[in-house]
Write a structure and sequence with these properties.
Blueprint (H helix, E strand, L loop, with lengths): L2 H13 L6 H15 L5 H13 L3 H14 L4 H13 L3 H14 L6 H11 L3 H9 L14 H19 L3 H5 L19 E2 L6 E2 L22 H8 L14 H15 L4 H21 L4 H17 L9 H20 L4 H13 L3 H14 L4 H13 L3 H14 L2 H16 L8
Length: 432
């Protein structure tokens, strides 16, 4: 292995490292400078361009790819990398020219449909992008999303940039007064108190961010602050339990948990009633054993399912769905006090924070979840979502890449969500 190849490989490894700090980035840049001075050839220039792309040094990436073009003629990888670089810069017309050339050189290239879909998503042409992903080369061909992390992480990020602003409750609802006064509303300090660094585009941490409670710290007011108000808000929306339903906290919890899991396999039109029945069983189990970790956790899981999927998802969040999210948060804080060594309570707490626009806090909880379960793909994906909402797009891509490398189904689900929302939300305002 030549010196330039070895140095470039080291730089690429640092550029995609989740734990890389600014000193590490500077080290990667220094390695690339050494590589450029070590007489690299075409394919090495290509990888130098890729490393600069991941470091978001777009000017240096263009220069490296131009050097590669002097040695590489009719090279599909060069056209693909050039297209991705243009997409990163939001130069979609230039990207399209590189993709057209890639198609001429290699019509069946497996990365081409994903790259075209990514380019279309960045132009907010959702229907066209989804159509390509369904039928990449022909009407009968089944598409395989399994392409390089360089591309697939960008596709997932583009999906989240569109979907998340549509899925999250509107800020006006979070700030509205009246209703559910027994729930303490935590003000979001993450998005508004962060300023973008002019040199890196990252979000600078403000003093307010450091005041967010540690994920493992005990909540001051654990559990449901006002059980009577909780019942008053929740029970009128739940169906009566069928005659002969199992009694006793343990049996109800088992029955409710099993019903909740089975509900995910039902068509969306049939889920809502089953979610509500499951929540009613889990609520009865919780009232029978309010101090049990599992009772609080299972009920919180059911409330989140009901809030996010037990309603008409083509409509924005309403006050009741947000109330369910806040009840779930209180229950999860209680569960975390009783068992701190669990990834899943932290994971769901992160989700409740994200839904309330508390992105930095959500990231802290997902990191806590990974402390207990280092290979939890949902936590990595959630971290990616939080970073995207904080406009830390590079970090968001890297976390999402880690997630989909472990479980591609996460991205397939989000593409299905995008298709559903695009089909039913005719008033959809597309995110940046």
């Amino acid at each position: 292995m030549s010196r330039s190849v070895r140095l470039t490989a080291q730089a690429n490894s640092i550029a995609v490292r989740l734990t890389a700090e600014e000193d590490d980035m500077n080290k990667a840049r220094a390695l690339l400078e050494e590589a450029k001075n070590s007489s690299p050839r075409g394919t090495t220039w290509l990888q130098i361009g890729r490393a600069y792309m991941e470091l978001e040094d777009f000017s240096a990436s263009h220069q490296a790819l131009a050097q590669a073009r002097q040695d590489l003629k009719n090279n599909p990888a060069l056209e693909l990398f050039s297209a991705i670089l243009c997409i990163d810069e939001n130069e979609t017309a230039a990207a399209q020219k590189h993709l057209d050339e890639l198609q001429r050189l290699c019509p069946d290239n497996q990365a081409l449909p994903t790259a075209r879909a990514l380019c279309l998503l960045r132009q907010k042409k959702i229907a066209d992008a989804l159509n390509i992903l369904r039928h990449p080369h022909s009407e009968s061909e089944k598409y395989d999303l399994a392409v390089s992390p360089l591309l697939i992480s960008r596709l997932a990020s583009a999906v989240e940039m569109i979907l998340l602003p549509q899925e999250l409750p509107p800020k006006e609802l979070l700030q509205a007064k009246g209703g559910s006064q027994h729930i303490q509303i935590v003000e979001d300090r993450s998005a508004e108190s962060c300023e973008e660094s002019p040199s890196t585009g990252d979000i600078a941490q403000s003093p307010a961010d450091t005041e967010i409670p540690n994920a493992n710290a005990p909540a001051q007011d654990p559990g449901i602050a006002d059980p009577a108000a909780f019942a008053q808000e929740l029970l009128p929306h739940l169906p009566q339990l069928p005659d002969g339903m199992a009694v006793g906290g343990f049996r109800l919890r088992g029955s409710g948990t099993e019903r909740l899991q089975r509900s995910w396999n039902l068509p969306e039109s049939e889920r809502s009633k089953q979610f509500k029945l499951a929540v009613h069983e889990l609520y009865q189990a919780y009232t029978a054993s309010p101090t049990a970790y599992q009772s609080a956790f299972n009920l919180a899981e059911g409330l989140l399912a009901m809030a996010e999927y037990g309603r008409e998802r083509s409509l924005p969040y309403d006050a009741y769905a947000l109330t369910l999210v806040r009840f779930a948060e209180q229950l999860l804080r209680e569960a975390l006090i009783r068992d701190k060594d669990t990834a899943f309570a932290s994971h769901y707490l992160a989700r409740t924070a994200l839904l309330q626009h508390r992105y930095t806090e959500a990231a802290d909880y997902w990191k806590s979840a990974l402390d207990h379960f280092a290979k939890l793909p949902e936590a990595y994906y959630g971290l990616g979502q939080a970073m995207i909402m904080l406009k830390k797009n590079r970090l968001g891509r890297l976390y999402i890449a880690q997630a989909v490398n472990s479980d591609m189904h996460l991205l397939r689900e989000r593409l299905a969500d995008l298709e559903y929302v695009a089909k039913h939300r005719t008033d959809m305002e597309l995110g940046e």
